[in-house]
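Notebook p. 47: complex prediction with zinc ion.
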Amino acid sequence: MSECLFCSIAKGEIPSDFVYQDEDIVAFKDINPQAPVHLLVIPRRHITSVLDTSDEDIALLGRLQSTAVKLAKEFDLDTNGFRLVINCLKDGGQAVFHLHLHLLGGRAMNWPPG
Ligand code: 5GP
Ligand code: ZN
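Predicted complex, structure tokens below:
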């Protein structure tokens, strides 16, 4: 079992509700959904937070976002819209220290966020 929860999920060591998988990226349903659609899109490779990315990761970061957009269409969020979120460290509300992008939709979101 990996020390990192999301590394374990990406390796299939913890059963999860996968909605997308390829060589570099997996996406699955959030265990504690904050909206009717709440998916997490993550790189298979362990990256602690978005602060730990560099120019070499630009293609991967782009693919994480484009995967989220494809999933938004698949989950019928392309008419009313959706929100993409990356929480970073303590003040950003990051609880799992493996980079992940939240895709939230199916209800109107508030702004500013809490
Ligand atoms: P963060 O606050 O780090 O941006 O978000 C972490 C997210 O991971 C939370 O929305 C939380 O509900 C979700 N999460 C935590 N543990 C698990 C788990 O074991 N499985 C799944 N599918 N989601 C999890
Ligand atoms: Zn990890």
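Notes: The domain at 5-47+62-105 is CATH 3.30.428.10 (HIT family, subunit A). The mean pLDDT is 97.
Next step: compare against the earlier run before touching the bench.
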